[in-house]
Specification:
The chain is 40% helix and 23% strand. It is an alpha/beta fold. The relative contact order is 0.16. The chain folds into 2 domains: 116 residues, Urease, subunit C, domain 1 (Roll); 300 residues, Metal-dependent hydrolases (TIM Barrel), CATH 3.20.20. Helix 3 runs parallel beside helix 4, helix 12 crosses helix 13 and helix 13 packs across helix 14. Strands 1, 2, 3, 4, 5, 14, 15, 16 and 17 form a 9-stranded mixed sheet that branches.
């Protein structure tokens, strides 16, 4: 007697990203509720399951949804407005625009826009590194409605350094930060039928005291959530931190005893050899955002140690950063950069293979967000988060068994994605998002951008001479 499934997805290729690195030609994935119940060749899956609906994906490649381990939901209104500044004034201008420009309505719209951008290009899970204090409910509402899976990591800071100069928040007090963040985690963790995890986010290494860092990790451990932070971004970041604390960031966190598997350090472009070893020995994770580094001149490609991190088997995730940084949310473009940029910087064509780069965006990122047992590969028992890419687009053809992975990494982008399933629910079909009124949202975003443009011009007029001195 056949077993029941809600959905069968048939495809010309099923890329599992599992431990055996299986690539199934003529495969199927069976879904029941929010879980995968079968992955295999089409005849055997159809022989074992009857489904309420069968999607014949035809000339498509089905694979796990991508996991974006670093972005900012406050960013869409700042797209293209914060450019060609060194790290400190770049952060200052970004916070000037978002702290003054966002309210409950615009943050909700910005959240929807970020989710739309990611879902339509194949990202099913993301980390928001810096969910705005006082506006958390708008972010939760937007993610729930969009149907994404997310780690919403609440901003925390208690040192008024240069980076936090324009970061408005209800209070700078350490205890207030900890008290309100714990209340946030208790209220919103596991929202959206469990798709939302409420994380802690001490926002910048030089904006966070030892007491706040320790307290934030205590909250993360108490509620079984993650700890996200911007760390070792560029030479300014290292210098600012050393002036305040007399140590490099990862050395400081090791000394505090908070380097562990919950620690998610983003950018991590300026690591010492010792810091690489500390990450390896602690089980902490690093996030590579190559596009943000290349646009901002951080040095993650020219100075970064990501090939060494991978060689040392440190968990490395991949992220786009926010729309003020990379200006896009397409993780496939990020995979391409991870697989190519280090080759060029070091004149070594063997660094970071296409499959390694793809693994960073799936299994590696899933492990970094503490969900390796749930997402990141197509396996029985895991969450039904999967995407399908059209193989009959010009950038793919001709395709065959020998060039599938190289075409996926070197040729395609998120525009190839036309089917997205999250938690067993179809959220994008035939390239159309089903959970958001896309045209309404685009009109709303366009209609409410003027104050952000004005704030950008205001910042340039007030602070551009100082910023030019930092270039």
């Amino acid at each position: 007697m056949k077993q029941r499934a809600d959905l069968l997805v048939d495809a010309e290729v099923v890329l599992t990203m599992d431990a055996e690195e299986r690539i199934l030609l003529g495969g199927s994935v069976a879904v029941l509720a929010d879980r995968i119940v079968a992955v295999g060749d089409r005849s055997s899956v159809h022989g074992d399951f009857d489904a309420d609906r069968v999607i014949d994906a035809g000339d498509h490649l089905v694979m796990p949804g991508l996991v974006n381990t670093h972005t900012h939901l406050f960013g869409p209104f700042t797209r293209g407005l914060v450019n060609d500044l060194s790290f400190t004034p770049w952060i200052q201008k970004k916070f000037y625009l978002t702290s003054k420009g966002l309210n409950e309505e615009t943050y909700y719209l910005s959240t929807l826009m970020g989710c739309l951008d990611m879902l339509k290009t194949g990202t099913t899970t993301f980390v928001d590194c810096g969910t705005c204090q006082g506006l958390e409910e708008s972010a939760v509402r937007g993610v729930v409605e969009a149907g994404s899976r997310a780690m919403l990591s609440r901003t925390m800071a208690d040192i008024q350094d240069d980076l936090a100069e324009f970061l408005d928040r209800p209070g700078m007090d350490t205890e207030q930060n900890l008290r309100e963040t714990e209340a946030y985690v208790k209220e919103f963790d596991q929202s959206g039928d469990g798709r939302i995890r409420a994380w802690v986010c001490p926002i910048q290494v030089s904006s966070v005291s030892d007491d706040l860092a320790l307290g934030a990790m205590e909250i993360a451990q108490k509620y079984d959530v993650g700890f996200a932070i911007h760390s070792n971004v560029d030479r300014e970041d290292i210098a600012n931190h050393h002036t305040l604390f007399g140590l490099r960031p990862i050395e400081r966190f090791h000394k505090l005893g908070i380097l562990n598997e919950r620690f998610l350090g983003t950018h991590m472009g300026w690591l010492s050899d010792l810091e690489v070893q500390l990450l390896r020995d602690s089980g902490a994770s690093a996030v590579h955002c190559p596009s943000a580094s290349m646009k901002g001149g951080y040095g993650a490609i020219s100075k970064g140690k990501f090939p060494e991190l991978l060689q040392e088997e440190v968990t490395v995730g991949l992220g786009t950063d926010g729309p003020a940084a990379s200006c896009y949310h397409d993780m496939f473009r990020e995979v391409y950069l991870a697989a190519t940029a280090h080759k060029e910087a070091r004149l070594d064509h063997t660094l970071i293979s296409p499959y390694q780069a793809l693994k960073m965006a799936t299994h590696g990122s899933a492990k970094a967000v503490l969900m390796a047992d749930e997402i990141g590969s197509l396996e029985v028992g895991k969450k039904a988060d999967l995407i399908a890419l059209d193989l009959m687009r010009p950038e793919w053809v001709p395709w065959h068994e020998d060039n599938l992975i190289s075409n996926l990494v070197y040729s395609s982008t998120g525009s190839s994605v036309d089917l997205v399933i999250v938690d067993g629910r179809i959220v994008v079909e035939d390239s159309c998002i089903l959970t958001i009124d896309e045209q309404w949202l685009l009109r709303e975003m366009q209609g409410k951008v003027a104050p952000f443009v004005q704030l950008s011009r205001e910042w340039d007029q007030k602070f551009w001479p100082q910023a030019r001195g930092r270039l």
